[in-house]
């Protein structure tokens, strides 16, 4: 393992200490994820589902979170929501054999035999070994284990080492975009925002609906002083999901700083976006003022 290198502090345009102070705490998400996973593994379904639901309510969009939630919902007998969660896991990670098998099982129970067979065949193709290579299921498990190690290293402040492990995990499974998302966040925290932007753009190109990655891409642009690009990303998130309080919050903060003369870069950026659609921008902030500003714990 490489020599220890601690992360640099993420920087935002001068005078934005108020903006930075309101950024959500990603460590809370990691703690909730660990609690949910441990409860899932020991069979404490109620605690696991509570923690996983908190994550999805915050906008965390990880394939394994949706998979575990789907399994728990199936155990509760809520098959419709279970199918929705498992399908979301497969959309995020098309090679998620366990999620495909769970979907096959649910559809068989419901008498949807054609759908069940289709999911089972997809899972079978994924688990079929190729000569000289690990089968996809084993690769996926190893990739997730490396990502778990990266999470632990990041929590301990070993950001550079964590980045190496995230990259190794993605070398095994490049389509595990929840891992790529975590890599993007930590690249920005390590003072590598341009590399961070590349990772988030990679995710969004493959999955435009990964709104959490668009929120983080906006923050990365903002950390570079690229306010017009940041505003564009956050507005794009709200256009897809008007309930995203994190995107509303960041836009309100940028607008407030612009109105208080907090920097020409912010004012110019706001004007550039707003001139495209002044009416929509006005409506956005009229509606966003009714949202509760306390829900700011999105990663």
Structure description:
By secondary structure, the protein is an all-alpha fold. It folds into 2 domains: 17-24 and 136-288, Tetratricopeptide repeat domain (Serine Threonine Protein Phosphatase 5, Tetratricopeptide repeat, Alpha Horseshoe); 26-127, Tetratricopeptide repeat domain (Serine Threonine Protein Phosphatase 5, Tetratricopeptide repeat, Alpha Horseshoe). It has helices at 17-21, 26-42, 45-57, 63-76, 79-92, 97-109, 113-127, 136-155, 159-172, 177-189, 193-206, 211-223, 227-240, 245-259, 264-274, 278-288. α13 crosses α15. The longest helix is centred in the middle third of the chain and has 20 residues, at 136-155. The protein starts with 16 loop residues before the first helix and ends in an 11-residue tail after the last helix.
Quick summary of this structure?
By secondary structure, the chain is mainly alpha-helical. It is 72% helix and 0% strand.
- Rg estimate, integer Å: 20 Å
Name of the CATH superfamily of the largest domain: Tetratricopeptide repeat domain
Specify the number of helices: 16
Relative helix content: over 70%
Quaternary organisation of the protein chains: single chain
Give, in order, the helices and strands.
HHHHHHHHHHHHHHHH
């Amino acid at each position: 393992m490489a020599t220890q290198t601690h992360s640099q502090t993420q920087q935002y345009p001068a005078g934005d200490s108020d903006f930075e102070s309101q950024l959500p705490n990603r460590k809370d998400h990691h703690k909730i994820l660990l609690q949910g996973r441990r409860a899932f593994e020991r069979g404490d379904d109620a605690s696991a589902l509570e923690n996983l639901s908190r994550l999805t309510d915050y906008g965390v969009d990880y394939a394994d979170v949706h998979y575990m939630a789907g399994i728990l919902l199936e155990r509760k007998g809520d098959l419709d929501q279970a199918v929705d969660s498992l399908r979301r896991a497969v959309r995020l990670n098309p090679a998620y054999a366990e999620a495909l098998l769970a979907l096959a099982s649910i559809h068989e129970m419901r008498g949807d035999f054609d759908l069940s067979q289709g999911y089972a065949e997809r899972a079978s193709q994924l688990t079929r070994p190729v000569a000289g290579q690990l089968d996809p299921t084993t690769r996926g498990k190893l990739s997730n284990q490396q990502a778990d190690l990266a999470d632990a290293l990041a929590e301990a402040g070993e950001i550079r080492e964590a980045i190496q492990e995230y990259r190794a995990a993605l070398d095994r499974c490049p389509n595990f975009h929840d891992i790529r998302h975590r890599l993007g966040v930590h690249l920005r925290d390590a003072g590598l925002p341009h590399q961070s932007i590349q990772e988030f753009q990679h995710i969004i190109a493959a999955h435009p609906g990964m709104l959490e990655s668009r929120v983080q891409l906006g923050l990365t642009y903002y950390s570079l002083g690229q306010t017009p690009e940041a505003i564009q990303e956050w507005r794009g998130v709200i256009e897809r999901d008007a309930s995203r309080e994190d995107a509303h919050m960041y836009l309100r903060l940028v607008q407030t700083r612009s109105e208080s003369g907090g920097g020409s870069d912010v004012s110019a950026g706001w004007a550039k976006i707003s001139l495209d659609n002044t009416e929509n921008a006005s409506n956005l902030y009229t509606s966003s003022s009714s949202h509760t500003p306390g829900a700011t714990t999105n990663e």
